[in-house]
């Protein structure tokens, strides 16, 4: 499940985070997998998240928007630079219903205990 939170921008304590796969920040800590990105009309999950979660093209993903709803969405397979990646079907519907705009900054973390992607909208400073 993905949970979206409304919090302040990430603190400097997260300097160990690597900038990989086109996302602004992606955790390389397998115990606390997360990523941060500026919202676009597509949500393509980072490889680290799909590897740790076991998600694939036959999976449904639970997305929890903090202070919002829980959504269950299908995944679609994409080929990006020769690698199999997974996009969330219906992401624009979530954005509209949860009042998240293109260009907003969001923080996503994978909850291993709940098998959910948690989404937090970051407040502008």
CATH 2nd-level architecture: Beta Barrel
Domain tally: 1
**Range of helix content:** 10-25%
Q: What is the averaged pLDDT score?
A: 80
Count every helix, treating DSSP H or I runs of 4 or more residues as helices. 2
Q: Structural class of the helices, strands and pairings?
A: mainly beta
Shape: globular
- The total count of strands amounts to 9
Give me the Rg, rounded: 13 Å
Span between termini: 27 Å
Unreliable residue stretches: 3-21
CATH topology grouping: At1g16640 B3 domain
What's the order of the H and E elements? Answer: EEEEHEEEHEE
Biggest sheet architecture: 9 strands, mixed
Strand content: 35-45%
Level-1 CATH class name? Mainly Beta
Find the CATH superfamily.
DNA-binding pseudobarrel domain
Notes on the protein architecture:
Strands 1, 2, 3, 4, 5, 6, 7, 8 and 9 form a nine-stranded mixed β-sheet that branches. The protein has a single domain (3-121), classed as DNA-binding pseudobarrel domain (At1g16640 B3 domain, Beta Barrel), CATH 2.40.330.10. Mean pLDDT is 80; it is low at 3-21. It is mostly beta strands and 125 residues long. The protein is built from two helices and nine strands. β5 and β6 form a beta hairpin. 11% of the residues lie in helices and 38% in strands.
């Amino acid at each position: 499940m993905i949970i979206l939170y409304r919090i302040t921008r990430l603190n400097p304590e997260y300097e160990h985070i690597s900038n990989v796969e086109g996302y602004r920040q992606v955790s390389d800590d397998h115990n606390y997998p997360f990523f941060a990105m500026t919202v676009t009309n597509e949500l393509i999950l980072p490889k680290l998240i799909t590897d740790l979660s076991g998600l694939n093209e036959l999976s449904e993903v639970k997305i929890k928007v903090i202070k919002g709803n829980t959504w269950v969405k299908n995944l679609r397979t994409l080929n990006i630079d020769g690698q199999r990646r997974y996009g969330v079907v219906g992401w624009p519907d979530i954005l509209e219903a949860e009042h998240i705009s293109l260009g907003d900054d969001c923080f996503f973390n994978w909850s291993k205990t709940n098998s959910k992607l948690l989404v937090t909208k970051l407040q502008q400073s």
